[in-house]
């Protein structure tokens, strides 16, 4: 079954009272609409992060050596360069690491706020595409983060106004880097053919393994929420229905091209048992796997 694991509201929860709390140097919580700003210093090592409901924009502040990360689009390894940014998408478990001590800061951007800005601007809502796949530089974003640290405060009226304006400016910078806004062509933006093909290839490779919506969204470098809508707009099927169709497609091929027992085919294609395969196969093809095999031969 394809499901979305319940994410934390913000990565700030992990750095304020989770296992990374000892690394926190400063934090500003409740900036604007539920946003948070955290500065932290960590020793060398690997740091897996849970999925969160927000976007997290992280800035390298101080460090050297090598860093690596996987934010849903595969592992990347590169030199630790102060000023580089990484944008963590919502709903995806991620992992960061470095071979030397390092200092970073991050700001959480609530997905609802980001989605609202994208929608009101007339942009096609497809998240930030390639910004989730690699580190990037954006001096304007770094300056806005400096402004947040120096001026924004949740306990003052002017600080909250500055924080909200700064977060809107950050979203605008990210939209520009991602090639947005684009004119709306009507309806929800559909997933590109290239990404649909990438998802299909991944599904066909992992049919015999358990996987969920978050796994498929990570292949497309989108949040689960946007992936579901964009994928259905492109294919006419929900991700779950698409995965089931791929399982039936593989089962049909194995029934015709191999002597593999039906029970084994069920297992290879990701069905719970032979009965599950038979029920699903009849629903799609109108015949049982055994009869289909006989008729094709």
TrEMBL record:
InterPro entries with a match to the protein in the record: AraC-bd (IPR003313), AraC_XylS_family_regulators (IPR050204), Homeodomain-like_sf (IPR009057), HTH_AraC (IPR018060), HTH_AraC-typ_CS (IPR018062)
Start and end residues of each HTH araC/xylS-type domain: 197-295
Pfam families noted in UniProt: AraC_binding, HTH_18
Coiled-coil regions listed in the entry: none
The keyword Transmembrane belongs to this UniProt entry's keyword annotation: no
Signal peptide from the UniProt entry: none
Protein name per its UniProtKB record: HTH araC/xylS-type domain-containing protein
Protein species of origin: Roseomonas fluvialis
Lineage: Bacteria, Pseudomonadati, Pseudomonadota, Alphaproteobacteria, Acetobacterales
């Amino acid at each position: 079954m394809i499901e979305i694991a319940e994410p934390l509201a913000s990565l700030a929860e992990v750095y304020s009272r989770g296992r990374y709390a000892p690394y926190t140097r400063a934090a500003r919580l409740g900036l604007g609409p539920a946003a948070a700003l955290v500065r932290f210093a960590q020793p060398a090592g690997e740091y897996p992060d849970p999925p969160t409901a927000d976007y997290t924009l992280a800035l390298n502040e101080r460090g050297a050596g090598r860093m690596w990360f996987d934010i849903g689009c595969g592992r990347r390894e590169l030199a630790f360069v102060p000023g580089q940014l990484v944008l963590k998408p919502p709903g995806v478990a991620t992992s960061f690491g470095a071979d030397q001590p390092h200092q970073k800061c991050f700001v959480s951007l609530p997905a609802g706020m980001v989605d609202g800005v994208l929608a009101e601007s007339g942009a096609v809502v497809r998240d930030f595409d390639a910004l989730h796949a690699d580190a990037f530089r954006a001096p304007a974003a770094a300056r806005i983060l400096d402004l947040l640290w120096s001026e924004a405060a949740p306990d003052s009226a002017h600080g909250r106004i500055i924080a909200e304006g700064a977060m809107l400016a950050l979203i605008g910078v990210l939209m520009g880097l991602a090639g947005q806004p684009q004119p709306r062509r009507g309806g929800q933006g559909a997933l590109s053919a290239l990404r649909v093909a990438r998802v299909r290839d991944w599904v066909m490779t992992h049919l015999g393994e358990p996987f969920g919506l978050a796994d498929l969204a990570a292949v497309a470098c989108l949040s689960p929420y946007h992936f579901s809508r964009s994928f259905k707009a492109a294919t006419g099927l929900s991700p779950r229905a698409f995965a089931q169709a791929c399982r039936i497609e593989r089962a049909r091929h194995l029934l015709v091209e191999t002597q593999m027992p039906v029970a084994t085919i069920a297992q290879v294609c990701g069905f719970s048992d032979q009965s599950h395969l038979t029920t699903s196969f009849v629903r799609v093809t109108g015949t049982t796997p055994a009869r289909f095999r006989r008729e094709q031969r």
